Amino acid sequence: MARQGMAMALLVVGLAAGCWESANAAAMLSQLKPTLAVTASPTPNQVLHGGEDVITVTWSLNATAGTDAEYKKVKVSLCYAPVSQKGREWRKTHDDLKKDKTCQFKVTEQAYAATGTVEYRVALDIPTATYFVRAYALDASGTQVAYGQTLPGATFDVISITGVTTSIKVAAGVFSTFSIASLAFFFFIEKRKKNN
Questions:
Q1: 3-state secondary structure 133-180
Q2: H or E segment at 130?
Q3: Which residues constitute the signal peptide according to the record (predicted)?
């Protein structure tokens, strides 16, 4: 009786571990089908400015893709192009999508439709780099099951806002000049007092 109870407990633990592992299994980019056709409005090598320019992203199901019954959501992101990943481990592409650092900037995540369009104003905090757009189809659990992207070739550059405007530069120059002039004036006064 005790052996049967022990065997049953081991079976339950084994099943639970298997379910947990399958639920937490990471999607691999190399195993996803490229069933989404993705386009973005910037022309190749176009320069966009954070906080100013708008990107229009369009996706659709490839005609030869087959069924999209398991697609529940679509997630669109800005992704670092390979040229902007060189020497930067924090931007590197990884086949395991839980470890992948390519697509860090979400454009949208919304209910899936076979075709869709979204407009995205480039955020002020997007770093200066070269980007492309990738869209993932997600299943009911939120796991990536398919994708599409604008690579190869359709990359564009983003120039981030530094926060240093022309007026700030002018003010800094004026105050620097004033401080140097004040220092020279007080130095001259102190020297004159010593001579008297």
A1: EEEEEECCCCCEEEEEECCCCCCEEEECCCCCCHHHHHHHHHHHHHHH
A2: strand 129-138
A3: 1-25
Q: Specify if 60 maps to a domain.
A: yes
* Domain assignment present for 45: yes
**Whole-prediction pTM value?**
0.69
Residue 137 CA to residue 72 CA, distance in Å, equals 7
List, in sequence order, every residue forming a beta bridge with 80; answer none if it has no partner: 131
Asked if the structure places residue 144 within a domain, the reply is yes
Cα angle for residues 122, 133, 51 (degrees, 5° grid)? 5
Three-state DSSP state, 72: coil
Cβ neighbours around 35 below 10 Å, total: 19
Residue pLDDT, tens place only, 144-174: 999 999 988 789 999 987 655 566 667 777 7
**What secondary structure letter does DSSP report for 96?**
B
Is the pLDDT reported for residue 178 higher than 80?
A: no
Strands of 31-122 (E only): list them: 36-40, 47-49, 54-61, 73-80, 105-111, 115-121
Domain contains 15: no
Distance CA 86, CA 138 (A): 29
- Which residues form the domain of 113? 29-159
Give yes or no for a contact between 132 and 158, defined as CB atoms under 8 angstroms apart: no
